[in-house]
């Protein structure tokens, strides 16, 4: 019968009325079995626990009278000994006290959840604001650099080109922040997947990486992959940057097709990491340090998943390999 009641149209605490019916059923059961209260007590505690998880403290205190009546009246009506009747004065305060403790803990958990929800809303608003607001000053910087480039020569021109590349990268990072926020809110990232030569793709992405160590590119000239070029650049820039920063040369970039997957591997020859840490590398804020906040690899995984693939860290002797797999789309299925 309770399932047929439209509780969502009633006040928030309306389901507490079910407790009164529950106490009535327990009292009737105790009377029907001749005053045997052995089964009544546990069910009274269960009713109180249910109420404590869903309703405020004042309802638990209001339950005290009907709960005591449901326990005590059948014992009196069936002429139970005074010792049995007197047990109500011990059992009921204990039941109410346990319920109040459960309610306090549940209230703290609800408060914590609401506080985390507010923090998440603030974080989302801050990320969106930063990602949007950074574009205006960057546009001015880019226009200024483009004007300077027209009259720059030699070393100055190379410096302006480098500044323009980094400005373009910040633009992409702002777009990435917006994309990550969109993933958090909708669970989906729209991709612009196109066929492109893998070697050209890798070389274009490396323009945004300052390379002062040995770098080996192992990509077949005839390999054509279907990926979102901008997202792939984010992936490769993150992985190569980490390999150059935390590993040792040479850093090897391999991109090859294996079965139904295109496999990108970025390997360094450094000390590697312990086995127990590899599974947590791609979590949010997992490996932050003085030079980062631990979001780079999380972004890599999200972008890999958006392509239908996966990201993993594999041990090498020596070093560590970051491996990204992309399933090869069927003909005509490129997004």
UniProtKB/TrEMBL annotation:
Transmembrane domains' residue ranges: 20-51, 58-77, 83-102
Subcellular location: Cell membrane
SMART domains: HATPase_c, HisKA
EC number: 2.7.13.3
Domain Histidine kinase per the UniProt entry, residue ranges: 129-330
Catalytic activity: ATP + protein L-histidine = ADP + protein N-phospho-L-histidine
Name of the protein described by the UniProt record: histidine kinase
Pfam entry (one): HATPase_c
Keywords noted in UniProt: Kinase, Membrane, Phosphoprotein, Transferase, Transmembrane, Transmembrane helix, Two-component regulatory system
Broad enzyme group: transferase
Lineage start: Bacteria, Bacillati, Actinomycetota, Actinomycetes, Micromonosporales
């Amino acid at each position: 019968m309770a399932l047929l009641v439209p509780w969502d149209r009633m006040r928030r605490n309306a389901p507490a009325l079910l407790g009164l019916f529950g106490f009535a059923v327990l009292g009737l059961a105790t009377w029907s079995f001749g005053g045997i209260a052995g089964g009544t007590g546990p069910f009274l505690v269960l009713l109180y626990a249910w109420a404590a998880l869903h309703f405020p403290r004042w309802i638990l205190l209001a339950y005290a009278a009907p709960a005591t009546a449901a326990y005590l009246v059948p014992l009196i009506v069936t002429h139970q000994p005074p010792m049995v009747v007197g047990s109500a004065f011990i059992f009921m305060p204990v039941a109410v006290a346990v319920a109040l403790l459960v309610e306090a803990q549940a209230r703290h958990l609800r408060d914590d959840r609401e506080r985390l929800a507010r923090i998440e809303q603030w974080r989302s608003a801050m990320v969106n604001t930063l990602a949007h607001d950074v574009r205006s000053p960057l546009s001015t910087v880019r226009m200024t650099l483009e004007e300077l480039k027209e009259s720059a020569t030699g070393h100055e021109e190379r410096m302006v080109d480098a500044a323009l590349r980094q400005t373009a990268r910040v633009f992409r990072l702002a777009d990435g922040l917006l994309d990550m926020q969109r993933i958090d809110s909708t669970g989906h990232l729209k991709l612009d997947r196109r066929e492109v030569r893998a070697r050209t793709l890798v070389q274009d992405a490396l323009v945004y990486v300052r390379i002062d160590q040995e770098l080996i590119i192992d990509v077949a000239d005839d390999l054509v992959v279907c990926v979102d070029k901008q997202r792939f650049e984010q992936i490769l820039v993150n992985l190569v940057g980490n390999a150059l920063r935390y590993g040792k040369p040479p850093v090897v970039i391999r991109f090859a097709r294996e079965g139904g997957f295109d496999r990108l591997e970025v390997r360094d020859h450094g000390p590697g990491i312990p086995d127990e840490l590899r599974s947590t590398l791609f979590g949010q804020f997992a490996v932050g340090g003085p030079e980062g906040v631990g979001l780079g690899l999380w972004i890599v995984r999200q972008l890999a998943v958006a392509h239908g693939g996966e990201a993993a860290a594999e041990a090498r002797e020596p070093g560590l390999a970051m491996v990204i797999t992309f399933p090869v789309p069927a003909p005509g299925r490129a997004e």
